[in-house]
Amino acid sequence: MTATYKDLQRATGLSLATISKFYNGGTVRDENAQAIERAAATLGFRPNGFARSLRSRRSGTIGVLLPALDNDFHLTVIAGVESALRAHGTSVIVSSSPDAAAGAVDLLLSRMVDGIIAVPSDHDVEALARAAERVPVVQIDWRADALATDGVFLDNRGAGALAARHLLDHGHRRVGVVAGDPAVSTMRERTAGFRAVVEREGGVLGPDSVVEGPLTVQHGQAAMQRLLVQQDRPTAVFCANYELTLGAVIALNESGLTLGRELSVLGFDGLELAQATVPKLTVIVQPTHELAVRAADLIHARLTDPDADPAPVDVVVAPRLVAGGSVARLVTPTEA
Fold first, then answer.
1. DSSP label at 155?
2. What angle do CA 146, 151, 155 make, to 5 degrees?
3. Which of 76, 112, 163, 253 has the most neighbouring CB atoms within 10 Å?
């Protein structure tokens, strides 16, 4: 026979109200919570999640909306959100939205999710804005200005600035960027942060030295090829995301030039790739797992305290640089 609240009451001596409060997400004393958990384990008690959702009008699920499911960044977001929410008894439904026809936001709402954590695509912004009128929405990774919701973001300008300072500190003045689509806020901000430091410190970053395009390996490869054939090619190149970095390294290998000797490269993410190149690639790393956990914390806070200040909350996470050997110190004539 399945154990019930009354069985837990007899085992713990606590009131039914306290036990119900515990299983419906309320706050109870630590010693009472521990007593309930011990009794539940002994009796084999399992709360009826479906019945509880009917009472609370919550499904106990959060939707995770991603542009695609084909890269490590998005998979790490899913894993981080799921692990953080599991601790609160909340499950995750994942949906990808490669184009406007996907209807991914409406699909999640039809599954009665309690909230949505989204890496927003342009074609989903309007639907997410409508969803935010019904459930909490948290943006992650890049900011859609039309969405007045909570968000968790990398300090992307800081990431670009960190890359520029590292190259400048190693003596590079003529630099280039394998850049992404400027319509994507993360790409726009990384390039802007890089440019601001280079120009302030007397470096050279001409219009032909920033090659923008889609966030694909193919564009990274083509962009690096364009930089390599310039008459005054850069001595160092910053690649603004992982796929661009991978494509740029492929192009450099195909050119016959030596990484870190004839051209310095500073990549983005991809610690596994960094370990595979010779010399090891220097990369800017974003703490993807932390971004995901912070997003999960924000949406959990909104659900547990619906009367909190509705003003959107921004959480900004700092990048870090992991040095390899792909950025060489450029020796100037006065140093030779």
1. -
2. 105
3. 163
CA separation for the pair 309, 323 (Å, rounded):
41
Q: How far is CA 191 from CA 131, 169, 304, in A?
A: 31, 18, 38
As beta bridge partners, residue 135 has none
Q: The CATH number of the domain where 216 resides is what?
A: 3.40.50.2300
pLDDT in tens, 259-285: 999 999 999 998 888 999 999 999 999
Please state, in angstroms and rounded to a whole number, the distance separating the CA atoms of residues 52 and 288: 33
The SS3 assignment for 318 reads: coil
CA 18, 20, 26, 32: dihedral to nearest 10 degrees?
40
DSSP-assigned letter for residue 192: H
Q: H or E segment at 239?
A: strand 236-239
**265 and 296: one domain?**
no
The reply to whether 173 and 280 lie within a common domain is yes
The label of the residue with tokens 């008459």 reads: 231
Q: Residue 268: inside a domain, yes or no?
A: yes
Residue 53 · residue 60 · CB < 8 Å: yes
Question: Do the domain assignments include residue 77?
Answer: yes
Summarize pLDDT for 11-31 with one digit per residue, the tens.
Answer: 999 988 888 777 766 678 889
Give the ranges where the chain is alpha helix by DSSP (H). 5-12, 16-23, 30-43, 49-56, 72-86, 104-110, 125-131, 156-169, 185-200, 217-228, 242-255, 271-276, 288-304
Angle subtended at Cα 73 by Cα 68 and Cα 76, rounded to the nearest 5 degrees = 105
Which residues fall within 8 angstroms of residue 41, CB to CB, at 6 or more apart?
none
107 dihedral zone (left: phi>0; alpha: psi -120 to 50; beta): alpha
pTM of the predicted model as reported, rounded to 2 decimal places:
0.77
Instruction: Give the Cα separation of 9 and 19 in Å (integer).
Output: 7
**What range does the domain containing 94 cover?**
57-154+288-318
DSSP bridge partners of 95: 65
